[in-house]
Amino acid sequence: MGNVRLTIDGRPVVVEGGETVLEAARSAGIFIPTICDHKDLTPYGACRMCIVEIEGIRGFPTSCTTPAADGMVVKTQTEELVTLRRRILELMLSGHPNSCLVCEDRELCEQYRPRASKAGRTTRCGFCSNREECTLRHMALDAGPRDLELTTLYSAHNVERNDPFMDRDYNLCILCGRCTRICEKIHGKPAISIINRGRWARPGTAFHKSHVYSGCTFCGACIDICPTGTLTDRFARWYGEPDRSVRSACSICPEGCPLDIRVKDGQAVASVMTAFERESRLCALGRFAFVQLAASPGRLARPMVKEAGEQIGTDWDSAIAGAAERLKGYCGNLAILVNEACSREDRFLYEKLAKAMDAKMGYVPAGQGGDALYPASLMAEILDGKFKAAVLAGAFLEEDALARLEYIVVIDFLPSSASRAADVLFPVAVLPEVSGTYRNAEGLVRKLSAAVSPPGEARWEWTIVRDLGRALNFEGFDYEEVDAVTSEIKGDPALKPFCGNPRQSLDDLPALFRGHHIVDTVCALDAFGLPKSFEVSLPESDGGFDVTKAEEVIPNFRLVTLRAPHIARHARPGQFVMMMVKDTSERTPYTLVDWDAEAGTISLVIEEVGRSSREAAMLKPGHRVAHVSGPLGLPFPIEKKEGAVVLGGGCYGIGAIYPIARALKQAGNRVICVIEAASHYLLFMEKELESVSDELIVATKDGTRGTRGGVQHVFERLAGGGTAISMFVAVGCTFMMRVAAERTRSYGIPLYVALNPIMLDGTGMCGACRVSIDGVTRFACVDGPIFDGHAVDWDELFSRRGAYVREEIESMSQGVEGTEGHHKHAGGAGCACHGD
């Protein structure tokens, strides 16, 4: 088409014909902001952030949709353009949670809390899993102060968790259309489109059908291209922006699709398409199961040997030497069973070992179990007792076949009946932990690259087979690097196809990997009807506490009332309870917000921040809670003070200060209550607090209600403004309490804080809630929860608060929630949805 010459911001630019003005500007290093544009999508022009001025053209055309033409004179940064873009951005933000962007403590908050806090719905940047990568956030920060300061219209959509693998929070959606466009590009017939109108418009399926029945193949492209975090990978969501990406290939089935492994803090958190192209798409297993299988909490991590009928841990040298010594006696009577979809290097060395030992090789087709061995006669030979020993590279034999063997060596990554029967058990690296090569069903050789290290003492499979060969004194096992094995491989066969291309249909997904039922670990696959190894039924608690009331007061916060007569009779202000929603839930502390001794009820404010609080947030009237213990902790000392008492509450603390304020008021004090929220739609219990206060002050970080700022700012203003104050009380997130302590220290007014958020068991036994108060170790659950805020070692506290971040993320449920908010599956081995 020839070259096109144009001028952009006074600079001559030459591009190929057919390119847009936006592409021309980028080629010249000239930045034009945009959100809906993406290099792998056709121009759309929806966000209008890329508008420019072009001489001779009326208005402000979008540069992403305007073809570059000879002689064009383009301006991208005029005063009028900058103003218009800022207004467009403000309109966009009016429908997108943004209070953190205008908070004066944002930088300090992010310094103390570098990771976004887990939450249900995203109500602000500090609770957004996409905070580090959000295009809209970066644009807003670059744009500087707002001109219009529009009030945020929070839609309060529920987070949709009723489909496998993904969470959908449409409160963040800006209708850029990336998800619907990439779906159409990759699959031809899109599974989603823009539905509804006005403020309720959002991407969705026709007639609100489940994605399982909409034609969606769960390739994850919509998640990976979303700029705002509206669509997220349920497993990877809270790990944060990846540190790096490693190109490798999937070896779950014979397709051997190339993929990129995303790594965060040494852990594989996602596997994604190498490009947004039809031929690069992944099936649900490659996109989601690849890393979840490797991340299973049940991974084998240490060599084991059987002594006196019991398996005990040992070191690698002893395990290899012991296995080799015993295997010497089974030459000619040994079967070696290998997963067909293993690396070329693993297969090559297994065959070399089999030849040296005069053993019979057997292969298990990808996605199938041990009953599908080929050659087909091998299973019959094992059952007939022809072989006295076996080396099993997976869970390939059932109890009856295992019982026929005298000696068993298992090389695997998850427990099974085979691993439990093993005389020697070797833990092995899998999937994102493996290097080598993989020949797929098309005969193409894919490179495998280890992106992360295997857990514990697990090793690459080829090194285990090599070491066995060396210990058996066989020639040809002197390899130091995997490349040395690769160079010797010649004429290896392509894998047998698995029921066609699994990327085309959810019906073709392999059910097993190395003989293990994939759905046992990746529980979301239950939505596709994949078979499990067993069903798990959870026992119902015989007793329990009835839920009499449960209502959402603001997004992610529910006020729950339970019948608990004993606790209601003895409750005091400042105390808390430990609750377990189910017998398998973890113990979680909740501050007592109210109680009625006559009715025998207690009330709690529950903030959804993780798995256990998610279970509690799903409670409804008529449900029953398994366990509630309390009242726990020391009550807040209630006495008449000379000056005013000032109580500040934020988040759950808005409810927590209510009983303290009520008791102080009844004791004859002048009570000033201060409540803070990020924005107007996150305030609650105002009427209740007004009824027990002489004065109620409302503060919002974005200034949409009351005074702009937070509790700490109001405390400073009151202390410095001549008000006679006898004490401050601050209850809320650790950041708010810390800055309140720092900013009130110089006034000489006592400050008390509640350290409930750092508790685990609530009895003082676990030690997780230990804090340093004036250099002395105290336990928040038994010595508190109320402490002198000026005496708390906040640096230590924040450090300890981050100690369990990874474990908390790993415990998050990966299951599918039904219409009533309960899982549709019963869990299974390795499933993180039940048990702690």
Average per-residue pLDDT, rounded, comes to 89
Shape: globular
Proportion in helices:
10-25%
Distance between the termini: 63 Å
Alpha-beta classification: alpha/beta
Question: Biggest sheet, open or closed, and with what strands and sense?
Answer: 7 strands, mixed
CATH topology of the domain at 304-431 and 454-486: Rossmann fold
Number of strands: 38
CATH architecture of the domain at 304-431 and 454-486: 3-Layer(aba) Sandwich
Fold blueprint:
Elements: E1 3-8, E2 11-16, H1 21-27, E3 53-54, E4 73-75, H2 79-93, H3 106-112, H4 135-143, E5 166-168, H5 178-187, E6 193-195, E7 202-204, H6 221-225, E8 231-233, E9 244-249, E10 258-264, E11 267-272, H7 284-294, E12 304-307, E13 310-313, H8 316-327, E14 334-339, H9 344-357, E15 360-364, H10 377-383, E16 389-392, H11 399-402, E17 407-412, H12 417-421, E18 424-427, E19 436-439, E20 445-448, H13 461-471, H14 482-486, E21 512-513, E22 516-517, H15 518-521, E23 545-554, E24 557-563, H16 565-570, E25 576-580, E26 588-596, E27 601-607, H17 611-617, E28 624-625, E29 627-632, E30 644-650, H18 653-666, E31 671-677, H19 686-691, E32 695-700, E33 707-708, H20 711-720, E34 725-731, H21 734-744, E35 751-754, E36 770-773, E37 776-779, H22 780-783, E38 786-788, H23 794-801, H24 805-810
Parallel strand pairs: 1-4, 14-15, 14-16, 16-17, 17-18, 30-31, 30-34, 31-32, 32-33, 34-35
Antiparallel strand pairs: 1-2, 3-4, 5-8, 6-7, 9-10, 10-11, 12-13, 12-18, 19-20, 21-22, 23-24, 23-28, 24-27, 25-26, 25-29, 26-27, 35-38, 36-37
Helix pairs in contact: 2-4, 8-13, 9-13, 20-21
